[in-house]
Amino acid sequence: MAKIIVANWKMNPQTSKEAEQILVSYLKLVKGGRGKVKSSEIVICPPFVYLNSFRKKLQTPNSKLQIKLGAQDVFWEEEGAFTGEVSVKMISDLGCSHVIIGHSERRRYLNETDEMINKKVPVALKAGLKIILCVGEHHRENIHEIPKVVEEQVAAALNGVQKSHVGKIIIAYEPVWAIGTGTPDTPEGAMMAAVLIRKTAMNILGLAAKNLPVLYGGSVSALNVEKFISHDGIDGVLIGGASLDPEEFAKIVLSANS
Ligand code: PGA
Fold first, then answer.
1. What SS3 state is found at 143?
2. Is 188 a catalytic residue?
3. Which domain holds residue 191?
4. CB 248 within 8 A of CB 14
5. pLDDT in tens for each of the 258 residues of the chain?
6. Is 112 in the pocket of ligand 1 (CB under 6 A)?
């Protein structure tokens, strides 16, 4: 299966000019290795406000890179009086094929709960978007055991989801202690989590979830990406900080294709 590489730019950079510069230099760098960049699916998730200009840049007629666009969040209501929120139709209209749901920073700073996440999931799926559901524990006391909260987050988010939507679900295992700290999980830890996540998803969505893509996220860099993606059970990576550096991100993408 093609590896999935998701870039989560979070609330960066601060101007549209800088955002376009990062995108353009990144595109130039990977174009050099275009022949190689075909066995992975790349999804860039900039802040909402840059989506429109990114769509235009990514849709150049002879762009063979097929970079997809994703939003970092979405609201669960489809329209109406919800000040500051953004709907599934709005992001689809701006060219998004993917949306991140339940990132730990939203859970932490905006008090996003499993219930709220569970309301967003079916709305995004119904709109035809692919969801990148983020789950992960705050602490791991026993390194040989993935905390139960990971299973609980998956079960809560997918509760009630129609089995027919299984092909549109990607789950990113992101241990909170590894995000932005420079200390990633071990590939073995990420593998253990991936097994548990797929098992939990299968309980809800049936056998079809056996091949559900599970990504790893948390301090992934050009230096360590290979350790994760060389495992069959890890279907890709979700990258924060390192995705804002075009050279670093290009290296990650190229090594996922080597
Ligand atoms: P990081 O962030 O790569 O900077 O650790 C990952 C994420 O939060 O998605």
1. coil
2. no
3. 4-256
4. no
5. 789 999 999 999 999 999 999 999 998 888 755 545 666 789 999 999 999 999 999 876 555 557 899 999 999 999 999 999 999 999 999 999 999 999 999 999 999 999 999 999 999 999 999 999 999 999 998 888 999 999 999 999 999 999 999 999 999 999 999 999 999 999 999 999 999 999 999 999 999 999 999 999 999 999 999 999 999 999 999 999 999 999 999 999 988 877
6. no
Please tell me which residue in 41, 105, 137, 174 is annotated as part of the active site: 174
Q: Which atom of ligand 1 is nearest to the CA of 105?
A: 8
Q: Which atom of ligand 1 is nearest to the CA of 178?
A: 5
Strands (E), the chain: 3-8, 40-45, 68-71, 96-101, 130-135, 169-173, 214-217, 236-239
Interacting residues of 67 by C-beta distance below 8 A, sequence separation 6+: 27, 42, 43, 44, 58
pTM listed for this prediction: 0.95
Domain containing 92 — which CATH number? 3.20.20.70
The total of structural domains in the chain comes to 1
Is 238's C-beta closer than 6 angstroms to any atom of ligand 1? yes
Kindly report the protein residue whose alpha carbon is nearest to atom 3 of ligand 1.
Answer: 240
20 is catalytic: no
